[in-house]
Amino acid sequence: MADLTLQPRQFISVVVVDDHALFREGVRAILSTVDDIQVVAEAVDGPSAIAAVTEHEPDVVLMDIMLPGMNGVQATEACRTTHPDVAVVMVTMMDDDDTIFAAMCAGARGYLLKGSDRTAMLNAIRSAARGEVLISAGIAGRVLDFFRSDAHAERRARPFPELTDREFGILERVADGANNEDVARELSLSAKTIANNLSRIYTKLQVTDRAQVIVKARRAGLGHRD
Which of 3.10.20.10, 1.20.1000.10, 3.40.1080.10, 3.40.50.2300 would CATH assign to domain 12-147? Predict the structure, then answer.
């Protein structure tokens, strides 16, 4: 009788998440040149990424941040909640401190800038699969400085650490009952800027309108409670 004992996988399984087909094809082409890494699925947005992780239980997810609808940070949080062993490596054009902070707080194990070379991508995947954290050399120093800073401690201690400082300030004022024009005046910004930031806040906090975001903010202790 044949031995039906399941054998451990001999390769690192990867799910590639990006809404641009050209990028996904490029990643596949790079990974096809090695024997120890295999793409088992692709996804184009947050929900399909979560579905792919649930179906394939990959070792590593290469996750874009700027996805339609649910962004990559939210998708990472969701994947890590249901599959805590999955290693997520963010692959993105964005290298600002706020985005890096949000990705790491969501549980990302690596942060790779798009345009990084083949060696950097392979190293990031292998390191993540081993449980290590690997960050692009160009931003590694900034990440260490940020996480050592007082700003990091303050951000972790407050509600909604995924929000940038500006977004959090806007949310505080909205939770206190201010309209967009009042917030714009107080922060010396345009009403359009306030509206754009609110849209990002809605996405990050997974609400659909102003009333819902006020309720969520006040439950977290922001604003008045009249």
Answer: 3.40.50.2300
Distance (Å, whole) CA 194 – CA 183: 7
pLDDT at 95 over 70: no
Name the token pair of 5.
């004992």
Q: What is the pLDDT of residue 28?
A: 94
113 SS3 class: strand
151 has a pLDDT exceeding 60:
no
How many H-runs (helices) and E-runs (strands) does the chain carry? Answer: 11, 6
pLDDT in tens, 188-215: 989 888 998 898 888 888 888 899 999 9
Which residue bears the tokens 């993540």? 128
For 87, the 3-state DSSP assignment is: strand
Classify residue 42 as left (phi > 0), alpha (psi -120 to 50) or beta.
beta
Residue 146 CB partners (closer than 8 Å, separation 6+): 97, 100, 101, 152
Q: Alpha-carbon dihedral of residues 124, 205, 165, 219, nearest 10 degrees?
A: -130
Helix, strand, or coil (residue 126): helix
pTM strictly above 0.85: no
For the chain, give the number of residues. Answer: 226
Q: Which of 42-51, 83-92, 116-125, 158-167 has the lowest mean pLDDT?
A: 158-167
Phi-psi region at 115: left, alpha or beta (left = phi > 0; alpha = psi -120 to 50): left
